[in-house]
Structure formats: C-alpha cells, structure tokens
Write a structure and sequence with these properties.
By secondary structure, the chain is α+β, with helices and mostly antiparallel strands. It contains two helices and 17 strands.
Amino acid sequence: MIRGLDTIEQSLDVLLKRQESTSGNIANVNTTGYQAKQLFQSTLKEVQFENHQGGSAVSERQNIGSFTFGNAIDGSYIDSSKGTMKETGRATDFAINSDGYFTIRLNDGSLAYTRNGNFKLNDQNQYITQEGYQVVGANGQVVTASDSPSFRIASIPNEQQMTDTGNGYYTTTQNIQLNTNPNVMQGYLEQSNVSMSDEMVTLMQTGREFEANQKVLSSTNETLDKAVNSLGKV
C-alpha cells in the first residue's frame, strides 16, 4: 500500500509537468514566432519483488513478480514546425519563410535566436527587439534600417536541443551555420505554431488522468486506514 502511494505520487508529478507545459503553450498561442514545447516520457524499469515466506519453514526467499512504478518525464523538445505567415504591412516586421532564426545580441553580449521578427527602431535607426535587444546583421553588426536589410540568419543543426530562455528566445552550444540565402519577408510576422485544439485535448486528457489518480489515491488511503486501525484491534 505504501508502494501504491509512491506510484500515485510519481504519476501526479508527471501529470503536473504535462499540465504546466500545456498551459505554457496555450498562454503563448498568440505570441509571434513562438514554438510549442513538448515533453517526452518513458516507463520506469521493472522492479523485482520478493519475500521470505517460502519453504516449509516459511523462511526461504521467493520471487513474487515484478512491478513498474509508473512513468517519468525524460525531457522536453521544441516543436520546430513553422507557423503561418500574417501580413502586417509594417516595415519593421519580418518573417523567415525558410529554415533559420534571427540572431539577437542580449544585454550581456551573448547571442540568442528567435523566429520573432516583430522589431522596432532605436534612436540610431537600428533594428531592436521589443525588449530592446540588438538584431544582428549578416556582417555581425547591428542591422540598420534600409530598403533591403541583411539579417544574420542562423541555421541550428538540431533545433530540438535548443534551450528555451523565455519570450521566444533560444540559446544553444551547437556549432551555428549561417543561412546565406534566407527567404525573409518584410511586412509579415510568423504566428505561433501552437495548435489550440490539440492543446485543449491534451489539457482535458490530463484532467481526466488527474481525476483517475485521485480516485485511486482515495481507495488506497481507505485501504491503508482499515489496515492500520483494524489490524491494531486484532
């Protein structure tokens, strides 16, 4: 019964992480260039059970089978599928209609990558993000507004291994390759690739699994209560 409580706890932890991930995707359904975060899980290894109630003297070890204590979250990955393109008509909006990411220089000088091309201009007529980060050009310098701005478009070898730092920015330790012939569309923005219907289905499924685990927890608690109180009276 105690093992049953451990199994339920493990299951609830997995469901909680799934709910957090799904809620995060739903919250960013209207975030420009947002890429959905997905979790992957695996089943824990089987554990062999045994007791020492075998033999004529009820003292020999005997195997009584195996048990799996549920699942565990192994990690997460970024859904790198492209969102739809929305025309805005604004000269400071850009969308990459091909593989690659805009290169952004953060305040500490490090580089980050994003599909969000919702830029603006600073006092030096340079493109910056809405948070004020510099947009890096193909020459490694800040991109200055012009009729045909040239952005540093980075190709990530394994997009699923990027680190999500929030607000649609990603970092990576991989060797970056530059896309020398990107298809950058001015006056457009890439929409989030989150499928609201899929996320709602996942959220409802997670809710049902929460309810099922709560029922199992209640039954296990009642059994444990009877075992403790009834056996104590014998």
